[in-house]
């Protein structure tokens, strides 16, 4: 790993060297400002004015060069258009081939210009972030809002690459027309858009995708998965991604994610009845549901480590263990054994391959579709969460074959056992193990940090992996570009990973713990609570839980496409925490009789707010986490998974322990810890971000 200043120097296009941002000079100037303010020779107001003027000059230099190069490209395209028109009258195959190659040459030069813009955009984000960090002042917000919203904005040229889209369109359209279409008169503008198989156009689109950061539904979903794009992948890396990619293998990973979420929630509506049928109390359902999470705490670690060497073998092992676990869960009824029931759920937890699913998308899916794959991962999880309880509501029958009973308690186990058996066969036949770099098996992690870009109305300049890397290597901003080799290595244990966590990251993990705890309390005790207060049937509980699960994607559409464009992420974060707290408060059973509208409305407020909070929290977490936690076994994705899983374990244990006080006290006793943790997370959020800004 190389610090950004050195990387900028190494990757500069030599003939354009004088037009790049002078990152080294600006970094030294920030240090000078700090020293001058410290000794009292300069006031803050003059520093802000001087630094703004310096940034304006740097941006103007970059923008004028971009416009000059755009003009040259446009002039070349104009001449090629004239040649194209002449060929339409007298077409010759050799001249068409030459013209196509000429357009591709323009495309290659456009790629150089896009890379130039990308490097300068990263430099600007980094120097603004360094200034904010050194002076504890939100200069970035002031500078971007005043410059970006101005009618003569030059900053938009850098962050929105204004004008380059027209050049991309001209190259794509003309190459499309020159391609043999077998008599088709459709263009790239006619629906449905016809795919153009040209490596130059594909490379241009990939470069534009890296350069553009738009907070939309797809990106918001991908942040839930904590699977992000790399900042500046080399062309060789992109070719390796293409070689590793196998669509059916990706589909199998998403199917594994979906089935595991179905497996997790399919037993929730019937777990209390199953426990009572084996002679235990209804509240033992907390232990039954939570046993899977207990095992997942350990399975996440060994699956994460195993994915350093293989993807196929962990998925096969996961399928076998889940098949056995579900079969044991189903047979526990006829064996009249609570022990077998719990062991079955533990086996299911030991088969949790979500770490492998994340890692596969991160390492083996090409950059240009990684965002869609990440969104698919979250969508599969949400769909599984909704389908699990819904499926349990359908399995309302009772019959016996030989010595095996099939009823609402055992059918979830039997159905999932068959599903995992089918998946095992499918995976064995269709999964393709990707090629691996044997020299550095730990080089890729399950968390890749995505580059940010300008967004009006929200925190516009996002922290990227390159920026965090420089903070790790040069925390004092003293101009040093090198760091000891050991300071760049990934964490090798949970303790070393914990030592890399900053206060803001710890707050984000606390929030994640809180929301998972609150959601688990709501979902796991729903059957017991609704049976005690409202005498709901299993089908009614299943419908309620399925409806909660179905809110996930619509809520993410609203937040990802609209709300996140109107407010800063930290504002949404705090508002969501407060709404979760309100939902918890409304759920308490006080003096008045407890009613269905109170339970449903409070549960809906709590669940929806927690879903919003999860997306925004993981988005912020991906930006503030050390780059050393983006690789290796003990990565940021594993830490967040462990925090959420431990929260679920504690929540399910709380339900069982509270059951000793009686079902009349269960609701309030389990909600009280949720309320305390929620209040603590709100206080920590306010304190942390007030101290930072």
TrEMBL record:
Keyword rRNA-binding annotated: no
TM spans (from-to) = 247-268, 280-303, 315-332, 338-356, 377-399, 411-431, 509-534, 540-560, 572-592, 604-621, 669-690
Q: Spans of biased composition, class Acidic residues?
A: 469-484
Sorted alphabetically, the keyword list is: Membrane, Transmembrane, Transmembrane helix
Q: Does the keyword Membrane apply?
A: yes
Cellular location of this protein?
Answer: Membrane
Membrane-topology descriptor: Multi-pass membrane protein
Under SUPFAM superfamilies, the record lists: MFS general substrate transporter
**Where does the record place the SPX domain?**
2-145
Positions of region (Disordered): 464-490
Q: Which InterPro entries match?
A: MFS, MFS_Domain-Containing_Protein, MFS_trans_sf, SPX_dom, SPXM_SPX_plant
Which top-level group of life is the source organism from?
A: Eukaryota
Q: Short name of one Pfam family for this protein? A: SPX
Which CDD domains does the UniProt record give?
SPX-MFS_plant
| Family per similarity comment | Belongs to the major facilitator superfamily.
User: What PANTHER family has UniProt attached to this entry?
Assistant: INNER MEMBRANE TRANSPORT PROTEIN YAJR (PTHR23510), SPX DOMAIN-CONTAINING PROTEIN (PTHR23510:SF75)
Record-given protein name: SPX domain-containing protein
- Species this chain originates from: Hibiscus sabdariffa
Q: What is the lineage of its organism?
A: Eukaryota, Viridiplantae, Streptophyta, Embryophyta, Tracheophyta
């Amino acid at each position: 790993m190389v610090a950004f200043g050195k990387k900028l120097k190494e990757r500069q296009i030599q003939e354009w060297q004088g037009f790049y941002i002078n990152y080294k000079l600006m970094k030294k100037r920030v240090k000078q400002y700090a020293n001058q303010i410290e000794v009292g020779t300069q006031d803050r107001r003059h520093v802000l004015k001087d630094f703004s003027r310096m940034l304006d000059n740097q941006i103007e230099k970059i923008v004028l060069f971009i416009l000059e190069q755009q003009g040259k490209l446009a002039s070349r395209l104009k001449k090629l258009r004239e040649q194209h028109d002449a060929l339409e009258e007298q077409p010759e195959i050799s001249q068409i081939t030459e013209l196509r190659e000429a357009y591709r040459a323009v495309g290659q030069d456009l790629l150089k210009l896009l890379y130039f813009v990308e490097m300068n955009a990263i430099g600007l984000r980094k120097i603004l972030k360094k200034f904010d960090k050194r002076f504890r002042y939100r200069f970035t917000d002031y500078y971007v809002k005043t410059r970006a919203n101005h009618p003569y904005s030059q900053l938009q040229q850098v962050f929105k690459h204004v004008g380059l889209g027209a050049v991309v369109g001209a190259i794509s359209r003309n190459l499309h027309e020159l391609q043999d279409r077998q008599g088709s008169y459709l263009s790239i503008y006619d629906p449905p858009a016809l795919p153009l198989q040209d490596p130059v156009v594909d490379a241009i689109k990939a470069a534009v995708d890296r350069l553009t950061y738009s907070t939309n539904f797809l990106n918001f979903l991908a942040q839930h998965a904590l699977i992000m794009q790399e900042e500046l992948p080399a062309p060789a890396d992109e070719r390796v991604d293409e070689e590793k990619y196998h669509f059916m293998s990706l589909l199998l990973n998403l199917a594994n994610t979906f089935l595991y979420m179905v497996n997790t929630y399919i037993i929730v509506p019937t777990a209390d009845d199953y426990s009572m049928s084996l002679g235990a109390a209804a509240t033992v359902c907390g232990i039954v549901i939570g046993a899977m999470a207990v095992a997942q705490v350990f399975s996440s670690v060994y699956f994460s480590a195993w994915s350093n060497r293989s993807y196929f073998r962990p998925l096969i092992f996961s399928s076998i263990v889940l098949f056995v676990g579900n079969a044991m869960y189903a047979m526990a009824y006829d064996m009249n054994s609570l022990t077998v029931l719990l062991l079955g759920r533990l086996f299911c937890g030991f088969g949790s391959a979500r770490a492998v699913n994340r890692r596969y998308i991160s390492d083996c899916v090409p950059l240009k579709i990684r965002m869609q794959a990440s969104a698919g991962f979250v969508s599969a999880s949400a769909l599984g969460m909704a389908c699990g309880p819904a499926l349990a509501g359908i399995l309302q029958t009772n019959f016996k074959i030989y010595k095996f009973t099939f009823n609402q308690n055992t059918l979830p186990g039997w159905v999932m056992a068959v599903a995992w058996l089918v998946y095992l066969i499918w995976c064995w036949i269709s999964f393709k193990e990707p090629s691996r770099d044997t020299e550095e098996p730990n080089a890729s992690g399950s968390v890749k940090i995505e580059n940010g870009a300008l967004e009006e109305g929200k925190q516009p300049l996002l922290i990227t992996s390159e920026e965090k890397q420089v903070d790790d290597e040069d925390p004092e901003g003293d101009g040093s570009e090198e760091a000891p080799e050991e300071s760049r290595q990934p964490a090798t244990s949970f303790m070393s990973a914990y030592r890399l966590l900053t206060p803001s990251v710890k707050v984000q993990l606390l929030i994640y713990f809180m929301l998972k705890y609150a959601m688990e309390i709501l979902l796991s005790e729903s059957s017991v609570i609704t049976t005690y207060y409202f005498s709901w049937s299993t089908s009614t509980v299943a419908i309620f839980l399925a409806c909660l699960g179905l809110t996930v994607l619509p809520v993410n559409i609203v937040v990802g496409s609209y709300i996140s464009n109107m407010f800063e992420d930290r504002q949404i974060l705090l508002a969501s925490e407060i709404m979760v707290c309100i939902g918890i408060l409304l759920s308490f059973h006080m003096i008045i009789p407890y009613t269905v509208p109170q339970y449903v409305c409070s549960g809906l407020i709590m669940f929806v707010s927690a879903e919003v909070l999860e997306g925004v929290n993981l988005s912020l977490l991906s930006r503030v986490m050390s780059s050393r936690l983006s690789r290796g076994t003990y990565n940021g994705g594993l830490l967040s998974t462990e925090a959420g899983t431990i929260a679920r374990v504690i929540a399910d244990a709380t339900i069982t322990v509270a059951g000793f006080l009686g079902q009349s006290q269960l609701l309030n006793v389990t909600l009280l810890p949720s309320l305390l943790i929620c209040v603590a997370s709100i206080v920590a959020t306010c304190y942390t971000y007030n101290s930072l800004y």
